[in-house]
Amino acid sequence: MSFVVSCVERFNRNALYNSVNRGSALRRLIHVLTAFGALYYFIPDHIFPEITKESAFVILIMLILAFESFRIQMSLKIIGMRPYEYSRLSGFAWAFMGMATVDLFFPFYIALPSLLSMALMDPLAGEMRLRGMANKTIIIWPLSFLIFAVCMVFFHMQPLLTMLYAAGGSTAAWLSEHFKFKAVDDDYLMTVLPAAVIILLKVLAK
User: Fold this and answer.
1) What are the angstrom distances between the C-alpha of 140 and each of 126, 167, 169, 172?
2) Residue 102 is inside which H or E element, if any?
3) How far apart are CA 52 and CA 1, in angstroms?
4) For residue range 17-67, what is the model confidence (pLDDT) as tens digits?
5) Whether 110 contacts 195, CB under 8 Å
6) 157 and 126 in contact (C-beta within 8 Å)?
7) pLDDT tens-digit profile of 117-159?
């Protein structure tokens, strides 16, 4: 009898482990896919004769928010969601809104590194925490700096401004991921806050 109980417990542990792994993998994939938000800048201004790409994006956001409202009302649990997301906007929705915000309101040279930093660094930090390396997630700070710096060089930014924007953007990205806020998810802040900081630095540097 004890052997049967042991087998059942082992099965439950494995099932839970696999479920967590699948959920984590899906979250990582969603984050990585946000980098493709940069393709927005290459879409023609008018998708249809009377519908601009901006309008289409806003409509898509409204549909996602409508689904989120329905999901919360119906208490739907979707794979990849954390328990605290069951009664609030999901990380998936926050990530998409962050992507949409930078696409709609920021120039390409700012949106690209912001999207890439979030898409690569947030999954890295999450994976490190999952493996018990939470105290080493500060590594995303210099890695984010590298992403911002390379993108600024790609856009032929002046060396001093490259360093300034990379320092500001990477610091904002790290702070957004490191400190958790109940009101706004880091999936949104990691994209939008670095972009906002770079705009502010641009104004101050004039």
Assistant:
1) 11, 12, 12, 11
2) helix 91-105
3) 67
4) 444 567 777 888 888 888 999 999 999 888 888 889 999 999 999 999 999
5) yes
6) no
7) 999 998 888 888 888 888 888 899 999 999 999 999 999 999 9
Which one-letter amino acid corresponds to residue 11?
F
3-state secondary structure of 97: helix
DSSP structure string for 121-152: HHHHHHHHHHTT-GGGGGGHHHHHHHHHHHHH
Give yes or no for a contact between 137 and 129, defined as CB atoms under 8 angstroms apart. yes
Structure tokens at 182: 């109940």
**DSSP run (H or E) holding 4:** helix 2-33
Match 């069951």 to its residue by tokens: 86
81-124 residue pLDDT tens:
888 888 889 989 999 999 999 999 999 999 999 999 999 998 88
- Using alpha carbons, select from 184, 120, 105 the residue that is nearest to residue 151: 120
- State the pTM of this model: 0.83
Helix axes 91-105, 186-205, angle to 10 degrees: 20
Query: 3-state DSSP call for residue 106?
Result: coil
Answer yes or no: are the C-beta atoms of 95 and 31 closer than 8 Å: yes
- Could you tell me the two tokens for 70? 């329905």
